[in-house]
C-alpha cells in the first residue's frame, strides 16, 4: 500500500473526532469521519419515509442516496445529499437514535466501505470510525484503538450537551452511552472491535492534545520505517 493510512477506532465519546482532527492537521494528512457517512445514510432513509426497522426497505432506500463526502483541511467532513449540505442536520438526536437500524444493514455497510476504500486510494488519510482498522483498512500503517470508561465518556457528552444548551441528566446520558456501546459491539459485520495489531490508548485522564501527540509520535516512527523499507527495496536490498 503506497498511501499512508492511520486508523482510529473506538466507542462514542472516546474523543475520536477531536483527536483524529488534531492528528490529521499536524501531520498534514486528510481526515475522514466515517460516522458522518452512516449519519447521512440514516438521514436519507428517514427522509424517504420507509420503516427503518425493515432491513430490506433500508437496502432499497440506500440505492437512491447520492452522497458526496468532502474532506476539509482543519474542519469537519462536509456531507451532501443530492447536492444539499447536511453536515449539521446529521447531528440531531433523532438521527443518532436511528443510526443503528441503517448501520446494521449489510448493503449499506458494503457500499460505504467501498466508498471509504476509494477515498483511501486517493491519498494519505487519517480515518476514524468503528471498523477502520479491522475491516476497511486491515493493512493500515498505524491502527489506534481509543477508549475511556463509560462514566468518563458520559460525563464528556453531558458537558457537551450542556454547553450547547440542551437539557439532559447525567444518568440518562450514561444509559445512552451504554446502549450505543452494546449496539456498536454486537453488530456482526463492522462491529466495534479492537484490531489485533492496534495500539490501545486510554483517554480517560489525558487531554486531546496529549493523546494526539502520542499518536503523532507513533505515526512518525511507523511512516519513517516504511519509507526506509521502500527505499531499500528500490535499491534491491533486504
Ligand atoms: O462516530 P459517530 O458517533 O458519529 O458514529 C455514529 C454511528 O455510526 C455509530 O454509533 C455507529 O453505529 C455507526 N458507525 C459505524 N461504522 C463506522 C462509523 C460509525 O457503524 N465506521
Characterize the structure shown.
The chain has one domain (5-234): 3-Layer(aba) Sandwich (Rossmann fold). Strand 4 and strand 5 form a beta hairpin. The strands form two sheets. It has a five-stranded parallel sheet with strand order 2-6-1-7-8, sandwiched between helices. Helix 1 packs across helix 9, helix 2 (34-48) packs across helix 4 (93-103) and helix 7 crosses helix 8 (170-186). The mean pLDDT is 94. The protein is α/β, with parallel strands linked by helices. 53% of the residues lie in helices and 14% in strands. The protein is built from nine helices and eight strands.
Query: What is the overall pLDDT average?
Result: 94
Supply the CATH superfamily name: P-loop containing nucleotide triphosphate hydrolases
How would you spell out the order of helices and strands?
Answer: EHEHHEEEHHEHEHHEH
| Tally of individual helices | 9
The CATH class assignment is Alpha Beta
The CATH architecture is 3-Layer(aba) Sandwich
- Indicate the low-confidence ranges by residue numbers: none
Q: Residue share in helices?
A: 40-55%
Q: For the terminal residues, how far apart are their CA atoms? A: 18 Å
CA-based gyration radius: 18 Å
Ligand types: cytidine-5'-monophosphate
**Strand order across the largest sheet:** 2-6-1-7-8
Mind summarizing the main beta sheet? 5 strands, parallel
Structural class estimated from helices and strands: alpha/beta
CATH fold assignment: Rossmann fold
Amino acid at each position: 500500500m503506497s498511501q499512508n493510512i492511520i486508523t482510529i477506532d473506538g466507542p462514542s465519546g472516546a474523543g475520536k473526532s477531536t483527536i483524529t482532527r488534531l492528528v490529521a492537521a499536524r501531520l498534514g494528512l486528510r481526515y475522514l469521519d466515517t460516522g458522518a457517512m452512516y449519519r447521512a445514510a440514516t438521514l436519507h432513509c428517514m427522509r424517504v419515509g420507509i420503516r427503518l426497522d425493515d432491513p430490506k426497505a433500508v437496502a432499497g432506500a440506500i440505492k437512491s442516496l447520492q452522497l458526496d463526502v468532502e474532506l476539509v483541511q482543519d474542519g469537519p467532513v462536509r456531507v451532501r445529499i443530492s447536492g444539499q449540505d447536511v453536515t449539521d442536520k446529521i447531528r440531531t438526536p433523532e438521527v443518532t437514535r436511528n443510526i443503528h437500524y441503517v448501520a446494521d444493514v449489510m448493503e449499506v455497510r458494503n457500499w460505504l466501505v467501498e466508498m471509504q476504500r476509494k477515498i483511501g486510494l486517493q491519498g494519505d488519510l487519517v480515518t476514524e470510525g468503528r471498523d477502520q482498522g479491522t475491516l476497511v483498512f486491515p493493512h493500515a500503517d498505524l491502527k489506534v484503538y481509543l477508549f475511556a470508561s463509560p462514566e468518563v465518556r458520559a460525563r464528556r457528552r453531558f458537558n457537551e450537551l450542556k454547553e450547547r444548551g440542551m437539557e439532559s441528566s447525567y444518568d440518562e446520558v450514561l444509559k445512552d452511552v451504554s446502549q450505543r456501546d452494546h449496539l456498536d459491539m454486537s453488530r456482526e459485520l463492522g462491529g466495534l472491535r479492537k484490531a489485533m495489531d492496534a495500539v490501545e490508548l486510554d483517554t480517560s485522564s489525558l487531554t486531546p492534545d496529549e493523546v494526539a501527540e502520542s499518536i503523532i509520535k507513533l505515526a512518525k516512527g511507523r511512516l519513517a520505517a516504511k519509507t526506509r523499507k521502500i527505499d531499500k527495496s528500490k535499491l534491491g536490498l533486504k
